[in-house]
Amino acid sequence: MSQPCCERVVLVVDDDPGIREALADLLGEEGYQVVTAMNGVEALDKLREPSQARPCVILLDLMMPHMNGHQFFAEQQQDRALASIPIVVISADGAVRQKAAQFGGEFLAKPVRIERVLEVIERHCG
């Protein structure tokens, strides 16, 4: 059974609860349904739940415990049902631009600007 599709669902994957909550609040106020995960393992579990609507974009931190952003991306690409979901890297890493190239090139540098987050999400989720 395929997952339901919802064009206004965003998955936020970040180990910092303050960042997850702030992004969930911001995007929720803009009418998006936000699903959060604290690491790549939890994100994959949520993405693979049959009842979970498929996100239009994943905001992915790189540095997380248990399964970091690179490991998550490798697993995502191995799963045909999930491989096409676009990723936007969100990181405080000084080399975020170079690291994001492996994920499709799109990134948000922490601390993120609200306008930039909304612009990126709108582009992916319409």
Keywords:
126 residues, alpha/beta, Rossmann fold, 5-stranded parallel β-sheet, 5 helices, 5 strands, globular
Account of the protein in words:
- This protein has 126 residues and is of the alpha/beta class.
- It has one domain: Response regulator (Rossmann fold, 3-Layer(aba) Sandwich), CATH 3.40.50.2300.
- Helices cover 38% and strands 17% of the residues.
- It has a five-stranded parallel beta sheet.
- The radius of gyration is 13 Å and the shape is globular.
Q: What is the strand and helix layout of this fold?
A:
Layout (H helix, E strand, L loop, with lengths): L8 E5 L3 H13 L3 E5 L2 H8 L9 E4 L8 H10 L8 E5 L4 H5 L6 E3 L4 H12 L1
Parallel strand pairs: 1-2, 1-3, 3-4, 4-5
Query: What is the terminal separation in angstroms?
Result: 26 Å
Number of strands: 5
CATH homologous superfamily assignment = Response regulator
**CATH-defined topology:** Rossmann fold
Listing every helix as H and every strand as E from the N terminus to the C terminus, the arrangement reads: EHEHEHEHEH
The global form is globular
Mean pLDDT: 91
Helix-and-strand structural type: alpha/beta
How many helices does DSSP assign? 5
Roughly what percent helix? Answer: 25-40%
Number of domains: 1
Regions with pLDDT < 50 over 5+ consecutive residues? Answer: none
Instruction: State the strand order across the main sheet.
Output: 2-1-3-4-5
Q: Give the DSSP E fraction (strand runs of 2 or more residues).
A: 15-25%
CATH class: Alpha Beta
Instruction: Provide the CATH architecture.
Output: 3-Layer(aba) Sandwich
Largest sheet: 5 strands, parallel
Radius of gyration: 13 Å
